[in-house]
Amino acid sequence: MTTTLILPSLLLIIGLALLVWSSDVFIDGAASTATHMKISPLIIGVVVLGFGTSMPEIIVAILAALEGSPSLAIGNAIGSNIANIGLVLGITALITPVIVKSSILKRELPVLLAISFGVYLLVLDGNLGMWDGVILLIVLVTVMTWMIRSNKALDPSDPLAQETAHEMEEIADLSQKKALIYLIGGLIILMISARMMVSGAVEIAQFFEVPEVVIGLTIIAIGTSLPELAAAIAAARKNEADLIIGNIVGSNLFNILAVLAVPALLAPSLLEPEILNIDMPFMLALTVAMLLLALSKSGEAKINRLRGFLLSLAFLSYLYMLYLRSTGSL
């Protein structure tokens, strides 16, 4: 490695490590703060955990857009959704089969697919503009309102309700003051680490003459999906399968609506043809696959190790395709 790459590589690696750690601190602080405010554990699970696990993507998107690299932000949003299904769900299912029982998830999964397809149609003209961002945020608020109401009416015996409540109990019991310190401190470190990641990634992309969108789809997307992977593996060890799918659904909704809205509002731009012709269709295909795997007429669906392997293989194949694309071989 030449000396030219040492600093950006260090920025990327250290930034990534800090990002994963600070994301966890931020989520603990946010969840504890919400608990002190007497907010329902289910609402905390939907809003705080869903928003919290997507906070790295949101901050990276903001910084990338402000620095004139909207393609990095766009790639991050789409790539993170691909990584959440192919990498996170795939690896988790390899560790232990994921059995989906929750009724609410079986309502939210089709909603995720419908919204993902709707967003694809929205940007099919190749332009990600300010009004697209406004529409995305309106849809986000609408969906979050629906999810909160649905969870309020959820049967306490529903597996997702039980697993979410259990997860809330395990979050560090922080005092109100300490929770605020975790919340604010975690957010500050998140911003610093995201800034390091973006700077390092942009310099590496420029050095190798790799399109920024490819860096966003790969290194940045995988990096910002690591909190979801850590949460999924932890949930798998506790047999909280519905929570795994729930976190992925929530994170993907935030990514496709909130994260993608950031470059639309801050740095409107044209989408690269590959985004529309390859990346978004692949994201939709994986979302369809997750929906089919998680739904069952018997009321219980099992994503076994073979299916986890196939999801992981699909993700690796996608990465290889991106490699070919970046080298001009595709």
TrEMBL record:
Keyword Membrane: yes
Any Gene Ontology biological process: intracellular calcium ion homeostasis
Transmembrane segments: 6-27, 39-66, 78-100, 130-148, 180-202, 214-236, 243-266, 278-296, 308-324
Keywords tagged on the record: Membrane, Transmembrane, Transmembrane helix
Location relative to the cell: Membrane
Gene Ontology terms, MF aspect: calcium channel activity; calcium, potassium:sodium antiporter activity
Residue ranges constituting the Sodium/calcium exchanger membrane region domain according to the UniProt record: 10-148, 179-323
Gene Ontology cellular component annotations, sorted alphabetically: plasma membrane
Record membrane topology: Multi-pass membrane protein
InterPro entries reported for this sequence: K/Na/Ca-exchanger (IPR004481), NaCa_Exmemb (IPR004837), NCX_ion-bd_dom_sf (IPR044880)
UniProt-listed Gene3D superfamilies: NCX, central ion-binding region (1.20.1420.30)
One Pfam family linked to the record: Na_Ca_ex
The protein's name: Calcium/sodium antiporter
Annotated source species: Thiomicrorhabdus xiamenensis
